[in-house]
Amino acid sequence: MTATAPQPDNAILLHACCGPCSIMSMSRLRDLGLAPTLFFYNPNIHPLSEYLRRREGLLAVARRLDAPVIFADEPSLSGEFDPSGESGPRAAHPGPWLEAMAALGPGMDDMKQRCPRCYDLRFVVAARVARSRGFTQFTSTLLYSRYQNRKAILEAGARHAGPDLAFLPEDFRPGLLEGVRLSKEWGIYRQQYCGCLLSEHERYKRLLEQDVTSPAP
Ligand code: SF4
Known about the structure:
Blueprint: E1 11-15, H1 19-31, E2 35-40, H2 48-65, E3 69-71, H3 95-102, H4 111-132, E4 137-140, H5 150-160, E5 166-167, H6 176-185, H7 197-204
Parallel strand pairs: 1-2, 1-4, 2-3, 4-5
Helix pairs in contact: 1-2, 1-6, 3-4, 4-5
The protein binds iron/sulfur cluster (SF4).
Iron/sulfur cluster (SF4) is lined by residues 44, 111, 114-115, 118, 194-196, 198-199.
């Protein structure tokens, strides 16, 4: 796609993983005088029903904050920014994530190997969209989480930045408690695991350690 007209100097594309993580990330960027546009591309969120809940949560936050938002899975975006066809409804398909993890073999159980690939997968598309829409900077709500690998996120951001596109290494974590409070007050869906099936397994595998076959006393 040919580049669109340049955005205002203070425009920034904010890759967003979910609603709760976006609230204070948006607030911080606005405090810095920036004008963020939310961008949702997360083929790491499984299953699709969970993806849809987080998507809905982000939409609710965008409406609350009167913020522009781009969903990579919008039918109108089919083929717009991704030559491999991962925009439009295909953007929600877990195939790219599964392929990236399959290449790791058993290493996929190691978050130090798995998560940097997951960040890359999302940032390559975020950077492509930023460039195609005329943004000169981007960042991610992943930098709001205490549980994500911040060093790997910053490295992934730097890999997909360039002379024409900066990655803003903002630390959104100071807004964590306020973000939790607001997301609860606003009734925004709050997820119980990071996103992928492996993180869901890690979250709930302890249930297998309970002897559910024992008869009730
Ligand atoms: S744990 Fe989270 S960041 Fe890591 S691979 Fe899974 S979804 Fe991606």
